[in-house]
Amino acid sequence: VMRAWVLLSAVLWYLTGVGWQRSSLLSKKGFIYGKPGHPVKIYVKLHQNSPVLICMDFVRSRKETVDPTYLWVGPNEKTLTGNNRMNITTTGKLIVIDFMEALSGLYTCTLSYKTVKAETQEETVVKKRYDFMIFAYREPDYSYQMAVRFTTKSCAGRYNDLLFRVLKKILDNLISDLSCHVIEPSYKCHFVKIPEHGLVHELFIAFQVNPFAPGWRSACNASADCEDITNHNILQARDRIEEFFRSQAYIFYHHFNETLPAMHFVDHSFQVVRLDSCRPGFGKNEGLHSNCASCCVVCSPGTFSPDVDVTCQTCVSVHIYGAKSCPTPNRNQHCED
């Protein structure tokens, strides 16, 4: 009996020409399983491929499945077939290639398989449905709001305005090669009472550092994900400006000793806050997209975003993902901001 079993195994291995191991079914990184009765939310970065969607729940995948068939239905309830965008395997796995705003929506897979009673060979067909809500997202565009303070002799006189203009020019030159620039600069002069000292005059200067200086698109090198490049540049710009003011404090402390010039940078006054904005057609919604709260997620049907705000506004006449405008409604519809 033993020899017969070994012989049969050898023949089977020869006929198939390959050894097959159940361990190949183990979960791999980047695989997302369905959950019966619960839509699975998935966020795919614009122009990237989606993770591998499995037309099966994890528990089912650990069991034997007889005669499985898989039917994928995409947004607009269209049956999906394998093409250059939809990669569907014979084992029911789906990968969406080069994800775009318009590909967002509900993806449904129906798994059909049989249960077979060993004694009677009686077959029963079982069907399970799995829903995946897929949203395109992109990284927010960063800009930085900054504030510094400088001492001054008086709140009157032209030197304050001259310092302000020179400082803006220095900062612009410092970051110009990064396609970044200073916008919305402003200053106010205040009297400040310093503990254990008298009154001093200080300029409170505020400005924003923005990654969209004229000609910024040339830095993208035809890259589809230009925010990756602009965000990298703005981070460098932030670091350079921070280092510039740190060096101002160092110079005054180490080279002027007790005789500081009347107009000088106030140590520890540099403050920076990151501001996020989303491209048109995208917005942030922490309530709806808690798993991607910092992302700019594509605006869902019923909403739109016309500018670089961070929220999608309501518009009932929008029926697509990623709307950038609110179309003129029909007589029976209305549009809200």
From TrEMBL:
Gene Ontology cellular-component annotations: acrosomal vesicle; cell body; extracellular region; membrane; zona pellucida receptor complex
Chief localisation class: cytoplasm
Domain called Zona-pellucida-binding protein 1/2 N-terminal: residue spans: 39-138
Swiss-Prot/TrEMBL GO biological process terms: acrosome assembly; binding of sperm to zona pellucida; circadian regulation of gene expression; membrane lipid catabolic process; negative regulation of immunoglobulin production; sphingolipid metabolic process
Pfam families given in the database record: EGF_Sp38_C, Sp38
Sequence similarity: Belongs to the zona pellucida-binding protein Sp38 family.
Name the UniProt record assigns to this protein: Zona pellucida binding protein 2
Record organism: Oryctolagus cuniculus (Rabbit)
